[in-house]
Every structure is written in C-alpha cells, then in structure tokens.
Amino acid sequence: MSASGNTEITVCPRGPLLVRGEIELRDANGRPIEPERGTVALCRCGASARKPFCDGSHKLTGFERPRGDAA
Ligand code: FES
C-alpha cells in the first residue's frame, strides 16, 4: 500500500485500522482493491469474512489488541 497526499491511520481499540485519505490498496498478488469508501476500515483481528476490510466480526470475537500494540 502506498499513499500520496495526507493519509491518516487510526488504530481502533479492539477493532480495525481506520485509514483516511488517498491510498492504493493491493492484495498479496499486487492486484488493486478498490476502497469502498473514503474512510477504509482494515481488519486486524483476522475474523472478517470481507478481508481486508472489517465487517464488525471483531465485536463478536472479543478481539483484544496484540501484545505490544499501543491501542
Ligand atoms: S477488525 Fe473488525 S472484523 Fe476484524
């Protein structure tokens, strides 16, 4: 993922990474993934059925931040 302009990433406690701003999102093979909105929520719990996007499943799994994570 690379960005141009102003991009902001917010770590949500027990939730996704919220990415605001212009980004290029790609899958593991380098194929572009179109962001669905201006603000993109990226799953970091591993439970989403819509990876790389968050689908709210973290609320059901009781996801806790990884060790060493600040938020
Ligand atoms: S962070 Fe929301 S489903 Fe994984």
UniProtKB/TrEMBL annotation:
Q: One MF term in GO for this entry?
A: metal ion binding
Mitochondrion as a keyword?
A: no
All copies of the Iron-binding zinc finger CDGSH type domain together span 26-64
What keywords are assigned to this protein?
2Fe-2S, Iron, Iron-sulfur, Metal-binding
Q: Which GO terms describe its cellular component?
A: cytoplasm
Q: Which Pfam families match?
A: zf-CDGSH
What SMART domains does this protein map onto? ZnF_CDGSH
Keyword Iron listed? The answer is: yes
Q: What is this protein called?
A: Iron-binding zinc finger CDGSH type domain-containing protein
User: What species is given as this protein's source?
Assistant: Zafaria cholistanensis
